[in-house]
Amino acid sequence: MALFDVPGWTVQATPVAEQSNRLSKKRKRPSLDTEKVQPTEINLDKLVKKLKGGANRDGAKGSADSSNVPGTSKCMKRERKKERDLEERKQIISLPKPLKRHDRTSTSPQSTKRLETKHERKESSSSYNSILGRKSAEVAGSGLTALQQGMKQSLDGARFRIINENLYKSSSQAAHQLMRSDPKVFDEYHVGFRHQVQSWPTNPVEHYIAQLSNRPPKTLVADLGCGDAALSKALVPKGLMVMGFDLVSDSAYVVEADICHRLPLPGSEGSEDEKSFGEGQIVDVVVCALSLMGTNWPNCLREAWRVLVPNGELKIAEVTSRFTDIEDFQSLVTSIGFKLSSMDKTNTHFTLFEFRKVSRKCKSAKEWAKIGSKGSLLKPCEYKRR
């Protein structure tokens, strides 16, 4: 029986039973008899060698085939070169880098800064050029605020007190060597001294300017430890002759000299047999205004006696708090060859002495050594903080 009745052709219908039978047929798998099948032994070494040999043959064959193609060999060479370069870079990166040698002479900013700091600390103890003084110099100049100006004054005051303490506790030779090696110390000291003087009710130098202004012209005055030569600048225009001596000569009015060692002036100490005034002296007045400093200050009075004319005047002004015993101080000055004329203790800060030169015998070195050992009669002057 036909499934469709189409004019011109017909399709034979397959019996349903046959179709079902054909679809239901399953492919039978062959059964394995495990007892009959025997496992084969595998040699791994031979297998590995075989695989390596095949790979080499394939690679050689491929390279031989590629060589026949124009331009292929150059491309392959470039690729291989890139691969080799890449491998070399990987090896270089993976290797540890060698340590660089440390060059102690390098001048990097950090190393230079460390060396300078060490150098500044050593220098502060040897030449008193401490960091404190350098900081005060850095802030110096115009355009400072009120706070900066106050800080600068505090630093300057501290610097002055440090220098002042060292000058009082060292000999005149050590102070002279310090000033010669670093003249700025001299300027810094006298700048600080002028600031201290501003707080005093009177200045001994001004007192002596007023006192000596009435002297006749051509009077020769020796100002020992003159500082900034205020006495010379005030009296020379009035016709007096003033010679100023200090550790540093910073102007036309100051002669560099160690006033406790040897003044560059004529004069002698006389003979050993009898009393005398010495010979060759030309100085009429010697002024020591706050200048008896150092551990050997008695030698300064010895030099004053040597250069003074007979009956010449010695004027001394010192801070009252420095004297351990005023009577012992007077006895010491008298033993050198002077006689006390007057003493003024009316000032709240200073004591003023007037001595006259008298004749005496020349002393032995042992006697001068005993006099020079009494420097402790004057204590170091302690200035207040500003």
Automatic annotation (TrEMBL):
This is Uncharacterized protein. It comes from Pluteus cervinus.
